[in-house]
């Protein structure tokens, strides 16, 4: 996956995780905001899956150790 897209996904997942942890610490019940943050992270994971499948199908190989 592209480096900038990977880093954006990592930062988004961290922000969503900290947001959900913060809401849990102040005893807020799950809301559309917290569920939406998790759904957004899952959406980006599906985009990453599609991009990875397209890159592998086009003949690219992983760099580094894949084990």
Q: What would you note in describing this structure?
A:
Helices cover 73% and strands 0% of the residues. The chain has helices at 3-25, 32-57.
Provide a quick synopsis of the model:
With 67 residues, the chain is mainly alpha-helical. Helices cover 73% and strands 0% of the residues.
What is the overall number of helices? Answer: 2
Largest sheet: none
Share of helix, binned: over 70%
Q: What percent strand?
A: under 5%
Topology:
Blueprint lengths: L2 H23 L6 H26 L10
Helix pairs in contact: 1-2
Task: Label this structure with key terms.
67 residues, 2 helices, 0% strand, mainly alpha
């Amino acid at each position: 996956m592209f480096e900038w897209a990977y880093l954006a996904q990592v930062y988004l997942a961290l922000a969503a995780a900290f947001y959900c942890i913060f809401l849990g610490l102040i005893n807020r019940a799950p809301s559309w905001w917290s569920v939406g943050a998790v759904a957004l992270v899952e959406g980006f994971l599906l985009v990453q899956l599609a991009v990875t499948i397209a890159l592998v199908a086009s003949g690219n190989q992983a760099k580094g150790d894949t084990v």
